[in-house]
Structures are given as structure tokens and as C-alpha cells.
Amino acid sequence: QKEVEQDPGPLSVPEGAIVSLNCTYSNSAFQYFMWYRQYSRKGPELLMYTYSSGNKEDGRFTAQVDKSSKYISLFIRDSQPSDSATYLCAILTGGGNKLTFGTGTQLKVEL
Amino acid sequence: EAGVAQSPRYKIIEKRQSVAFWCNPISGHATLYWYQQILGQGPKLLIQFQNNGVVDDSQLPKDRFSAERLKGVDSTLKIQPAKLEDSAVYLCASSRFLPQNNSPLHFGNGTRLTVT
């Protein structure tokens, strides 16, 4: 079983839609969860960083962790064409020393 | 603050040839990472350095891949000999401390390798 699994998409939504991106993970001991955004031909950049359970909000972005289900989500409100990118969930594994990524979900927001 | 610098941006080689990639991390960042990202997949950690010591190289194919970080700053990743399945983007990242110390990774834009 993979440590992190992510819906691969691709996902296409109209501008202004609410987007939900999801990952599941295998080990209930994991505590640090991140979302990275990667534009085409660029390196990933950190969007959100959460610890343990609950929600964290930053502007139009909300990260949610459900430790009982081992499920993490990223919600994007009022999606914009500039949000078109690949979104990668990432979890600290290996005793907290190693960042393990999901496969990424490609998102396209259309006018 | 200058970002993580990588070169070259693109490289095309034939199988069985050798290739090297270079990375200059953000100044002051002790931890340096090399990730391999195959098309349609997430980045996979190849090797992680803390200063000039190796923290994790469990997924580095050591029969053909090697990496070094002399003087704890710049790093090079080498492949010799290359195989077709090595075609990927090689991403370098750095962080001020180890990840569990709330220290985010900053990525370069990668080197895109095509092996023909």
C-alpha cells in the first residue's frame, strides 16, 4: 500500500466553481500535511501546511485533515484561471524527516 | 531572497551515456534534496543531505546514480550509465532545517532529462 494516494484527475471546472482535491494516507501516525501547487515547467511551491486534524484557511484556500479517516482535502473557493496547475499533497513520513508526495491532481479552470 | 538554482534546464542524451545536474540551494539552507518526477507522477525523493552528510538515500539507484554535496552548499547528481526510464524532471529543493522543524521545502524549476 502506498503511503499517500491522490486522485489523479484531470479535473476541469468553470471559473468561480468550488474545487475539492483529495488524498488518503496509510499511517495514522502521520501528523504534518502539506499542499503544493506546481505550474507547468516549474517546481512545486508550498500552498498550505497543517498539523494534526482540523481546518486551516488562507484566503480562497482551505486545507482540511480528517485523521480518523486518514483523509486530507484542499478546497479552492471562487476558482480562477490562474489556479490552473497540478496540486500535490505531501506528508511527512520516515519519522518526520522525509516529505512524501501524492501523484498530483491536474486542475484546469476555464473561463 | 534568491531561489534554488538548477542547471541545465534541459538535457537530451542517448542511453548508456552519462549526465550531471547541478544545484545551488538558498543561502543558509542546511538541508538539500534531490527528487525525481516522472511525467504524470509526484516527485520521488532520491537523496537528502543535511549539510554535507546523507540523511536518506534509500530510493537512490546506487548502481547508476550518485550525488555529492561538497562543503555543504552546492550539490551535483550524476547518472552513469543512463537508461530510458531515467527520463524525468530532476528537482532540487532546500530547507533551512529538517522538515519536521516546520521548515518548508523550496524547489528549483528542475532539469528535464530525456534519454533516447
Q: How would you summarize what this structure contains?
A:
The complex is a heterodimer of chains A (111) and B (116). Chain A starts with a strand and ends with a strand.
Walk me through the structure.
The complex is a heterodimer of chains A (111) and B (116). Chain A is mainly beta. Chain A contains no helices and 11 strands. Chain A has strands at 4-6, 11-14, 19-25, 32-38, 45-51, 54-58, 61-66, 71-76, 85-93, 98-101, 105-110. In chain A, the strands form 2 sheets. In chain A, strands 2, 4, 5, 9, 10 and 11 form a 6-stranded mixed β-sheet that branches. In chain A, strands 1-3-8-7-6 form a 5-stranded antiparallel β-sheet, with no helix packed on it. The relative contact order of chain A is 0.34. By secondary structure, chain B is mainly β. Helix content of chain B is 0%, strand content 47%. Chain B is built from no helices and 11 strands. In chain B, the strands form 2 sheets. In chain B, strands 2, 4, 5, 6, 9, 10 and 11 form a 7-stranded mixed β-sheet that branches. In chain B, a hairpin with a 6-residue loop joins strand 7 (65-68) and strand 8 (75-79). Chain B is globular, with a radius of gyration of 13 Å. The mean pLDDT of chain B is 94.
